[in-house]
Amino acid sequence: MRDPERIVREAAAAALSECAARGQPAQGQIVVLLADDRALKRLNHDHRGKTKPTNVLSFPAGVPGVLGDVALGFGTVRREARAANRRVADHLAHLVAHGVLHLAGHDHIHAGEARRMEQAEARVMRRLGRPNPWRGLT
To answer: Phi and psi of 69, rounded to 5°?
Structure first.
């Protein structure tokens, strides 16, 4: 994949623009960590009690001027993209947007919240000129 830093920056900015466009502005510093699956497995265990790697975790800061951190397990991101026959860059952009939307207050615990978050993610991907990650899924 070429220039993952650019992909991350653009996806984060597009997610924040989506929030602002919907009257939910979110501002502040965001740190994005691209790590191996071992690191994400450890974070997932320490913060969620799950003993497996995951694709993305968000950690809201709760500090003025800082939105929080987004951690991505690049091995999992790559495997998921390949399994779904998607470009790794597109999947990475989607998961960065997903993590940033979490930092901005979105969630997907309940069905209605999940649908709103999926719609926001689809709009972010459209802003980026990338495919809708939810198209074709049932």
So the answer is: -120, 150
Q: Who's near 18: CB < 8 A, 6+ residues apart?
A: 97, 101, 120, 123, 124, 127
Report how far residue 117's alpha carbon sits from residue 63's, in angstroms, rounded to the nearest whole number. Answer: 23
State pLDDT tens for residues 109-138. 878 888 899 999 999 999 999 999 988 654
Q: How far apart are CA 94 and CA 90, in angstroms?
A: 6
Which residue in this structure is represented by tokens 């939910």? 24
Residue-wise pLDDT for 82-105, tens only, equals 999 999 999 999 999 999 999 998
103, 26 contact by CB (below 8 A): yes
Closest CA to 15 of 82, 133, 132, 98: 98
